[in-house]
## 1
Amino acid sequence: MATDPIPRFPDGFLWGVSTSAHQIEGAAELRGPSVWDVFTAEPGRVKDGSTAAVACDHYHRYREDVALLADLGVDAYRFSVSWPRVDSPGGLDFYDRLVDALCAAGIRPVPTLFHWDLPAGLDWLERDTAARFAQYAARVADRLGDRVGTWITLNEPAEHTLLGHALGTHAPGRTLLFDALPVAHHQLLAHGLAVRALRAAGAGDIGIANSHGPAWAASGDPADRRAADFYDVLLNRLFADPLLTGRYPDGIGELMPGDVEADLEIVAEPLDWYGVNYYAPARVGAPRGVDTEWGGVPLPAELPFSVRRIEDRPLTDFGWPVVPEGLTELLTGFRDRYGDRLPPVMITENGCSYEGLDDQDRVTYLDGHVRALHRALRAGVDVRGYFVWSLLDNFEWAEGYARRFGLVHVDFATLERTPKASYGWFRDMLREQRGQRGHRLR
Ligand code: FCB
């Protein structure tokens, strides 16, 4: 790890950590089921056979978790609101209490309205789900809007579409491949309708959290380049283009349902900021007629691209390559691609899975990525915030509890929380950023 201090970020830069409702809350019996509850109940769906019924029991232990956030010294906490909980009696009361506790600790609450836990019975293949989402967003804003100043509509609609509906490794477990595209469109429409609903409720400072990463062509061969471009369209442009330019990439709009032109006007409602979840780039080549793997997810041979290993890089315990400069490349590439249409950026997730309390590998990962972010800033990208994924070890979707992304270790037998070395590193880094002033920026 480099020993020179991390360069200073601008005053007002927002430092935070992220979590999501289904991954930490537990208290599943106090809410209606989501598609994830249905999915995990099916044998073989989650690798260790676990469920999120208890998870970190954050629902009951949120005060302890807010105290951890306060000790850490973050400016902001990104969590998600569970739609099925809000639909259940007393469900909004929990977020009321959480937001109050955060405000009392001087931490800015940054709720995400949808982080994959769709109420069971709803379906993103149905257009109507978008309108329902906007109604739900309005209800949450109505209750929390007096204390919440920053909102995120959706988390990673790309992964929810691809993993949940195209490849079937996430809930709801569909394997529609390209027939899953309406799921992308309806989520984008839901986002736009929710932005309008939030603004109508008086909310400002609205963003979205999209996962992005550079697509590196496996070679200079035109077939590999075409495959990498295709991957770039699917993972990066399919969501960013309509949001930022009001248009789908060439050839995509025709595949989408409904009055696409009219919908795109809603999708492209101006955003106050754009959230990027960054983990790693992908090396992409022409199809090889064999199944490949994307971050641990099996990819069928019939896709028009194949994902190759990134050699000569350390790998996290999840097998994801550690490539900090990919973050600089991604952000400068976005600035070049979207120009003035790109609002200020926040990194809404970045992190890694490693075992152990003395997690020096995580420290190295985070240190490298924070420096890479600063390079993007120096290159002129307007970056306003950085959120580590995640505060706590948690239910990592189809991987169950086997992947630990937390700055804080959770013993899932006792639910005891123990800060890791990376927690101390992040806390010290935040103190240094503030020039030892020792207080958080509000
Ligand atoms: C992201 C998800 C988040 C978590 C991290 C590791 O894709 O948004 O919930 O699973 O990956």
## 2
Amino acid sequence: MRTGTALIYDEEMTKYKLLWVDPACKIEVPERLTVSHEALVRSGLADRCVSIPVREATEADILLVHSEEYLEAVKKTPHMTLEDLKEFTLQYGDVYFHPNIYRCAKLAAGAALQLVDSVMTGKVRNGMALVRPPGHHSMRSAASGFCVFNNVAIAAQYAKQKYGVKRVLIVDWDIHHGQGVQYCFEDDPSVLYFSWHRYEHQKFWPQLRESDFDSVGKEKGAGFNINVPWNKVGMQDSDYVSVFCHLLLPVAYEFCPDLVLVCAGFDSAIGDPEGEMCAAPDVFAHLTHLLMNLAGGKLCAVLEGGYNLTSLAQSVCQTVQTLLGDPAPRPADLAGPCKSALESLHCVRSAHRQYWSCLKHAADLPSPDISTKRVKLAEEEDEEVTLDKGEEEESAEEKVWPEPLKRVPPPTRTAVVLPDGVACPDGCKNFRPSEDLDPLIVNKLKEDFLKDADDSDALSTLSSLVALVEKMEKNEVCSGLALVRDVSVAMMCVVQHAASALRNRVLVVCLGDGKVPSHVTEDGKTCVVQFSDKESEEQESKYYIPVCLKKGYGDVSGFIQAVLGLLLPLGYEYDPGLVLLVRMSDSGPCESAWQQLTGLLLGLAQGHTLVLLQEGERTRVGPTASSLLGDPAPSLGQLPAPTPEDVESMERLRHRLKADWKLLQTTGDFTTAAADINLTHCLTSAQLLKLPGLY
Ligand code: FKS
Ligand code: ZN
């Protein structure tokens, strides 16, 4: 099993800077790198990483993406006078040259390649390269936006060429559009490029028409370029998480990459003067976590932008700490995406519905000319007038936000409660309650859950579970796994204890059609999501969510789609303190889908997940423990389309719940209310299916 996180950094890359006055370039300073690296050192994270030296990218490496003429031109810059450098710079937009930048650009690209080598050869599982200059704007024959060579594009080509990697996913969470990456892979279906970026209807740099949602890729590459334009500033955690759940992740799972590269720019975080967004640095822990079960965990993050030094350093630490496997912090209050984000999401999903079966059911644009463009432009002009009259807005850099809480992993990662004769999996701790339970609790357990009051085995299991849950609440244990005689009883017992004695909300995720504790959900302290192949007879409520997958778990696509598009957003919005994952009898999905589910759920509740398995399912103990320990789940393979029945029932469910759970929304307000009403009240489900364009 590959483990370890690489950190690639070299001080040499701080040794160039802007030598003249240029307001567009003054934010790109050497301190960006030093503060990021120092924060990693100071927090002890750097020490936990495997430090890998940089190297210079060779000419052959650079030529994987750039033209010979361009390389030759850049090669001359170390020998130029200041005047020559200025003049050379003028032919490009928002970039500067320096006598040492060619050397640094070779190191930056080389650092990305060293990272790819370390991950692909199994020396480490994942890693991050801290580099300058950044790369994602540079094009075949042009520098742009502080970028000289396209580090990540070169890394993708290199991985394909050297390791025969078939599919690469590039996630560009920098707040600028990496047009250089887009141009490089536009017609290439083996590289899926995803970018979100501040766009403001083409008013924001680089102000390109082709950064909009309708640039989906060309020829064979159609569908493999995904642009999410942000048409407003101030996007928050919810907006980012929503786009991951409803767009990036479903497509990424369907694509099934062999390698994930991240254009890791942190100008998308709060406080950044360029991005002017409001996402907390902690959100990068979640974005990172959500990508870590793709490609068997092979993830390489390469620094791009980030200009608020405080926010940048915090965001880098969140990313690296997550790569190291520490549980993500509790997500901030995710109140759902804003209207503008929903509109963008809707436009991108509909532009891509013909290419990805996970998006087939996404709504069409309501009418051909409602793109986010025209309608919004008109509105915006109005707004600007009002803004001028108002007070001067606070600048992004004056924004204050709380420092992310220190993430202290519990002393025990995974504790197990197993019957005699079942070996404790490597890396787990056999759980024995350290002190006796309160006799009152023991009596209550006996009364409520034991058929036979003298059944000491059953009592000891239940007592252990209760004690374990308490340890998890105290953050002494992160996750747990129990093999029990009767999962239903164990589930009821944990839920009841949590509801009465614990402070935290519990998310119960139940696989199988057994009876669930739906009656305890009313006050919202418990939320139950039940996957089964039967229609539920329970009373539906905001906190009891039956997900019916008709083909059971035979259809992995349907299952994963429900996990990504329903369970995760719901879980993120509900923000439990404990996740109880219950697998009833022999009804769960295949091993890899089960591991994906377990891995993804660890992003909630600071990784506090307790898994209950039925005693007969001993063979599941090993793989489940491995997921709880943070090992990446195996890939599911390229996913086929989910069955129309499953899609239909999921969409109906989403439709019912989206008023209560804002993170389940995928469309803006501009789909007509009439269509909404038709959907819920007038049409049969068969009719619904024929009208995918309506919802
Ligand atoms: C100053 C205008 C600056 C250029 C922005 C370049 C952004 C570069 C970046 C990278 F990741 F490449 F570093 N316009 N008000 O952040 O995307
Ligand atoms: Zn940027």
## 3
Amino acid sequence: MKIFETKNYQEMSRKAANILSAQIILKPDCVLGLATGSSPIGTYDQLVEWYNKHDLDFSEVHTVNLDEYRGLTRDNDQSYYYFMHKHLFDRVNIKPENTHVPNGMEPDADMECARYEELIRSFGGVDIQLLGLGHNGHIGFNEPDTAFAKTTHCVNLTESTIEANKRFFASADDVPRQAYTMGIGTIMQAKKILLVVSGEDKAEIVEKAFYGPITPEVPASILQLHTDVVIVADSAALAKVKELH
Ligand code: F6R
């Protein structure tokens, strides 16, 4: 596990974008695993800036996103489909048919999860998976549990996640109760993992996840077993592990 410390969110975003750019340049038809949330927004902005300077070409890139709310239409501004188009896909020359987000409107959960796993397999796997880190150690929508979920599955959102997300919706009743997410096994099969984390509110979970025991109660802790993980974290997020890395 390689940890890069950066001064702040902006520097973290630039470093992460550098790593993703290297992947795109070395393998123009690579498969990027992508995430939503506040952590990767700066990374996407930086990639767009380099694209606008003609330093990057997304024309052969394929993407697969980690997760999506179940029951939200694509044009709902809280769907992850909408987020990805707003922050990246609509701003670069990626082919829309090469971008993939789980279909939140597919009512048959088993079918959608099997389809998504098969899609990733058909690409020969993810070359680099970008991740954020939840305050409770979740990655994707894989919440603390008694076991690690292997493949793409449908999860019931916890009360705390619904509570945390309700600020984005008109009311708590409008927050979806379920989501589709890649499993921990799906994530662990990515050839390379790039996790971005910023802010002192994440310092405690960074210490637990990457310096504590490997346990499904802290889903991100499994990343300690992956052979190619890069964590790009700002100083605030590394505040509790300064002397350890
Ligand atoms: C997003 C995702 C989530 C976030 C995590 C951190 O697709 O899968 O696991 O990465 O909740 O969110 P932020 O970056 O908003 O702190």
